[in-house]
Design brief:
2 domains; six-stranded parallel beta sheet; globular; alpha/beta
Length: 367
């Protein structure tokens, strides 16, 4: 099986995740990139060099070269991850079979910016042989807002790497509870300010609590200044970007995981936290509701209410029995529905059915 992945290689987390697993499954995989990807073997990515700044102009300007390199590789499948950029490139290449995966903002936000953006999404869906979304609410949204043959649309959550994210060596200090978030600081939608505004109230009741922020972005400076203003900086650590292994190590020491994004696709960071035994406190949105129930396996909060967030953090810290029950339930959920290694095998089956022209039977392997 030969697979060409069209995926943004600038952030190595997801490209490396797909690449490693496919190599493990003996898939001949190549990634196409306009940027250096030195975390991959040199022979396993197709480097397209260009000084054109706009991502879509890069694609159009280098389309002939891209097509020639694809013709040389002769993949059995092209899989584009993200609709408005990589999916757009896949629609220009027009090579089949072709899969496009929607990840969140590419269907929820980008198409609302202009008629052109919506046209691009619609074009990708028309050209694709299969469209996958990462969550049921995304699939429902696509059906309601775009023209698509529902026979070629499935829900396919990726899940997390359970070889890295698991309960092995989990050790929580009950006397110094760690509350962690692993969302980036590149988008106001992730709403990290809400967490910081909740910290003073938590510290009034549990002064030993520590807050860990993993991730980075242009908003980090703003958040650090807010911590100084609220006089909580001594209880907060901003660790920047971390490897998957480092994130897992921190999650295994953390009591509570928080994700207060206003909108999300499939919250993989939530899957990772659940697999490591953290008690989740997340915004009450479909992306999170699909993974756990309140109160047995986590809490939900209003994305505009820092007082509610603080209250639920305090309750969770004080209720060890509740946290232990949630740990058991959530680890089982990840094992059944959110294990990347199991999902990758299902995706391989989908590839095989598409390659052989048997897509009519492929819907049985999703989720």
């Amino acid at each position: 099986m030969k697979v060409l992945l069209l995926i943004d290689t600038r952030n190595w987390t997801f490209p490396k995740k797909w690449y490693r697993k496919y190599k493990e499954l003996s898939i001949d995989v190549k990634l196409l990139s306009f940027y250096n990807a030195d975390y991959l073997q040199l022979d396993d990515y197709i480097r397209i060099k260009t000084w054109i700044p706009s991502h879509r102009l890069k694609m159009i300007g280098k389309l002939s070269e891209i097509k020639n390199k694809i013709k040389s590789f002769k993949p059995d499948i092209i899989h584009a991850i993200q609709v408005t950029r990589q999916g757009f490139l896949a629609s220009l290449i027009d090579y089949h079979p072709m899969i496009v995966t929607a990840i969140g903002s590419d269907i929820f936000i980008e198409p609302k910016k202009s008629i052109i953006e919506k046209w691009i999404v619609q074009r990708c869906f028309k050209k694709a042989d299969l469209v996958t979304s990462m969550a049921e609410h995304m699939t429902d949204y696509i059906k309601k807002n775009f023209k698509i043959d529902e026979k070629k649309l499935i829900t396919f959550p990726w899940g997390c790497d359970t070889k890295i994210f698991n309960l092995e060596n989990r050790k929580v200090n009950e006397n110094e509870p760690i509350i962690i978030t692993t969302r980036s600081m590149t988008n106001v939608l992730y709403n990290q300010e809400l967490i910081i505004n909740a910290i003073p109230e938590v510290l009034k009741h549990i002064p030993e609590a520590k807050f860990i922020f993993i991730g980075d972005g242009y908003l980090r400076t703003k958040y650090e200044k807010l911590c100084e203003k609220l006089k909580v900086k001594n209880s907060v650590k901003f660790l920047g970007w971390q490897t998957q292994e480092q994130i897992a190590e921190w999650l295994k020491k953390s009591m509570i995981f928080i994700s207060v994004a206003r909108s999300d696709g499939n919250n993989i960071s939530l899957n990772e936290a659940m697999a490591c035994g953290c008690f989740p406190i997340c915004t009450d949105i479909p992306a999170n509701r699909q993974w756990y129930n309140e109160p047995d396996s986590g809490f939900f909060v209003n994305p505009d209410n820092s007082e509610e967030l603080a209250e639920k953090i305090i309750i969770a810290i004080k209720d060890k029995k509740l946290r232990k029950k949630a740990e058991e339930i959530n680890c089982q959920t990840v094992s059944e529905r959110g294990d990347w290694h199991k999902q990758a095998l299902k995706m391989l089956e989908i590839y095989k059915k598409l390659k052989n022209g048997n897509w009519g039977q492929a819907s049985s392997v999703h989720q």
